[in-house]
Amino acid sequence: MSKPETPYRKRALGARALSPETLMMSYGFDAKLSEGSIKPPIFQTSTFAFATAEEGAAFFRVMGGRAQAGDPVEAGLLYSRFNNPNMEVLEDRLTLFDGAEDALVFSSGMGAISTVIMAHAHAGDVVLQSTPLYGGTETLIRAILPQYGIRSADFFAGASEAEINEAVDAALKLGRIAVIFCETPTNPTNEVVDLAVMKRLADEIGARQGHRPPVVVDNTILGPIGQSPLAHGADIAVYSLTKYIGGHSDLIGGAAMGASALMAPVRKLRSGMGTNLDPNTCWMLARSLETVSLRMKAAFEGARRVAEYLKGHPKVERVRYLGFLEPGSRDHEVHNRQSGGHHGSTFAFDVAGGQEAAFRMLNALGVLKLAVSLGGTETLICHPGSTTHAGVDEALRERLGFTGGMVRVSVGIENPDDLIADLEQALEQA
User: Fold this and answer.
1) Buried b (16+ CB within 10 A) or exposed e, 350-380
2) What are the pLDDT digits (tens) for 402-428?
3) Rounded distance, CA 117 to CA 119, Å?
4) pLDDT tier at 2 (50, 70, 90 boundaries)?
5) Which CATH number fits domain 12-288: 3.50.50.60, 3.40.640.10, 1.10.3210.10, 3.90.1580.10?
């Protein structure tokens, strides 16, 4: 069930449906409730006063899932670990691009991922994952969750349906499959997972074991402008808000969104574990959402030009850019169906000569910034094998196609000609 419509949650002007870009300026916020402020103030408070003791009791019943007849549909403001005006404005607006019923925000992307998985998987259960995933997610699923009795089984992101079915059979021998977790495109190799297959897989597993596992998709790499997983078979979409949505490399945050029924246990666990996001960061993210479409489209175009340059360079062996997928191939068809032809701005390329050559190139850069993370206004570049994915088993990295010379670049909104000039002089040192 979606949130009730209020005067500040209207999505249409008469018969005209308003676009997410327009709704980002006002949706979920009533200026009259904040002294007429055009922008939401920062509600830097830990707690909120109740009008009456009865009101406070009703709010806590609703928040705890114990609502009685006559209680409000939504809990009013009570304590900033549970809700806060800045948090609620941000969560309302995050639903718009993805078409979600409900959204929740967290203190980091990994806070979102861990809370979602632990809300739906318990001791004795199995997480069926695609691989590769972001290094932190691989470590969570393969090394940390087993300490709590949650096991895992995997399949390669580009695997055939027959290979995926083999992985399902192996997973079912371990226990109940509670969650299907995938990332598409993958970080950093830009492999593609077919979400229609994931949906069908979840339905088939549900019929076999009596419980349909939700399909959870990390959509950080293409973001809400490049892809909408919920429209293609996913049940829950998760994000590192640190990346494109925040987009300025000045905050840490995460989000999860989907149907209200699936988000309810996630909300309950977030309240219990305290993985919520603070009011100031919520305010910063609401600010960033106003320009996310402009920033991402500019970055996508800059990445296209940088990738085209690298593709023809004699010291670059391979460019793993989504725009270079072979026409007619399985990945090309799936990617275009799911993303509408958006190729993103983050991709990897392999420097000839291995890690030593890659390090020489990285150390020679003057404009591109040598740092982990992605999706900022500035262009960032790193060596995943020794940084973001260093904690992933070396044999697994080799299985996933990592090479010593592979570097990942996230193109920002600088002039692409300047980025190309910097790469040109740096590659001379490789």
Assistant:
1) bbebebebbbbbbeebebbbeeebbbbeebb
2) 899 999 999 999 999 999 999 999 999
3) 5
4) low
5) 3.40.640.10
